[in-house]
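Supplementary material to the annual report.
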Amino acid sequence: MRFATPILLSILFISCEDPIVVEVPIGETKLVVEGVITDQMSSQQVRLSTTDDFLSSDPTPKVSNATIQIIDSNGNLFSFSESSTPGTYLSDGFFQGVINTSYKLQFFLDSGQPYESDFQELKPVPQIDALTFAESILLNSEGFIVTVETTDNLRTGDFYRWRIFKNDIELGTLSDVFLRSDRLFNGNPFNVEFDTFTFEPGDECTVEQLSLTESSFDFFRLVQIQTGDIGESTSTAPTEVIGNIRNINDPEEKVLGFFYATSITDRTVIIQ
Amino acid sequence: MEAGHLPVIHVRKKEGNDQEFHVTGGTGLASTRLMVEGPLVKKRSSFLVSARSSFTNFSFFNFNDELSFRESRASFHDANAKFNFRINKRNTIYFSGYFGNDRNRIGEDDLRSWGNNTATFRWTNQITPKLFMYTTSVFGDYSYKTGKPNKGIGEFIGTASNISYSVKSDFTYFKSPNNSFDFGGGLTLHRIHPGDREPNPGNETFNAISLDSEHALEPYFYFGNEQMISDRINFNFGIRLSQFLNIGAGDVFVYQQGELKERKTIVDTISYRSRDVIKRYKGIEPRIAINYRLSPNSSLKLSYDRAIQYLHLISNTISPSPTDVWKLSGTHVSPQTGNQIALGYLKHFKGGIELSVEVFGKKMQDIIDYKDGADLLLNKTIETELLSGDGRAYGMELLISKKSNKMSGWLAYNLSRSERRILGASASESINGGKYYSNDFDRPHDLSLVGIFSLNQRWGFSANFIYRTGRPITFPDGKYEFENSVVPNFAGRNQDRISDYHRLDLSATYYGKSETKKGKERKVEDYWTFSLYNVYSRRNAFSYFFRQSQGGLPETEIVKYSILGTIIPAVTYNFRF
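Predicted assembly:
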């Protein structure tokens, strides 16, 4: 070769997004369970629905007339009744979950099929040490971002989730859910910056800090992967997220969603 | 560049010119290169030194007004030095060194850099006029660093590396012009440092994490013979015998028998001391090829070979990333084996036209796959995230080429399938119910068409067209709602495809005059290259996104994501004196 090979390093990252129409497969309809027990004295809630065609613009179908109860590891039983919103079941009266107690969801559908979850422990969550705000340093965003400061306990295997509210309205979807495991910082003080959301002076910001179990943490992490922009070069292969609910008569049935227990602590700050 | 990251630059093999000095270089929009070569002792010893660099912190072009792109930068540098010395008629020594460093920065504070260093020493000895020996010693080091240097407190620096040292002796014995033997052996030491993470000073949040290094020794011998059995039949066979010894020190977890490998099913830990053999594998790799000449212009070739791979690249992202983890075969990860058989036909026609057709079939055992949502970062129990299975590939490769002074070109067409099957003991250890499905890189049709035309001494033109089937991806088969978000449900992996990829590139080369105005020969030879990438600005899909619409529940949308979806002109200047 007489000459150097000409080198053109094509670092021209010109990317674009175009809405398209493609035919998507229509899979079998699956049951979806959304249930949570918190340590807040409230009307605890379980919702049942099903999957729908991906491109349907209607709300997904709700599942009514189920018989639902929750039992705890001490043998207590809590019954639920369907509310005026179809598919939404509320506990009969207020109650609160107890730390270090495990809970299990059991229900029958109208068809008579029996389902249950595994036992989910309600793990303690540390207090929020501070909730601070600062002007965003990112060039493309104006306003303030908030940071939560907390201290992990010495035990390993703690899992966290945060929910952020602006003037009592929750921000974001599960694609930007904030999750942490203490695997990399067990026992240390740490902070989490919610840099995807900005606030204006006068906004009221509330951050809820929730405890998760390893399995509920994995569930939210997998759901986050599915709801993000799957297919970017750094993303992992998408997958069907099978939760912790099973049909007792038919263990092969794939049930989506999750039932979990959580302890919640919160903090509010006015941005100024 | 469709993968969306910088390639690790390929190094051209070229030995120095032992007759005269030359300087060669080139410069384009993004990078520049320079090479100097020449004799140290004329006709006896030569050197070659070259270096390349992208322009410092050349910003990514930005047509998308997002900070993450505006603040992104990439750079690479590499340097290469070669030296060879002919001691006498029978002995030559050769030394080469390569140093490369690439880095990119994504958004404000995500920095990644990776380096590739190799040093090679080779001694060529002609023992007898018919027996040659090449003794080579190679050191190779690949490492990467990742971190968020700007953030200071609260952040960390992560590192990992893959180092190998090897010594080998290769012999070639020419028994007769029609019969030659090659044999030899070597020893390679592999050392993989899968990763550690050091918090920045003052960072009280992160604990330092360091994964144990992995070590292995790979001794091997091989023997091969190539001979013309008759004037029509050429016979070539060989065998390679190897062992792979995964050695301590290291801890190996023992999992509950018959249970899924999970952190909670660990029942014991075996600690191996330094130099203890943790796991031993043996490998036999035969190969055979028979070439049968049908006529003076055509031949048939039948071949079989087996290849064993002891090192595994652990990556569950769609395209390879410089931060992917390497893993040695050991207690929980078996070597990967591939067996391939191929039949080919080659024919030369008049006018420099050549036709080749090959059909092949391949089977692979112990290929690695990943559990759903596997977490591979700094994971001490990485085997709990892995699945294993087998693969198969088959197809046909067609190549028609024409070479002449005025006009050259080729058409290459591959028709193939590449599939895998992950069938484990339980549903969660299987993918797609244990049925065969397309590999990420399965592209049944792959066509490229290249034409090169030289108009005169000064101008040359070329055109390049590519067409290939879109890669397999997973479409959702439904959606559901959970906590006021829409979740697409991806039921079966790689059952669908993105749209097909095609693109045309054109280029023109303008050569500088070879003589000055006075008719003397110019000392400098130079040329310009003008090129157009993606001439008809096709927005080839890189991926599809299936997501909740901006409007919120319950609307969804499908979006095609493309990179380099427009025509890109470029100019390069090259010289040599």
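The two ends of chain A are 67 Å apart (CA to CA).
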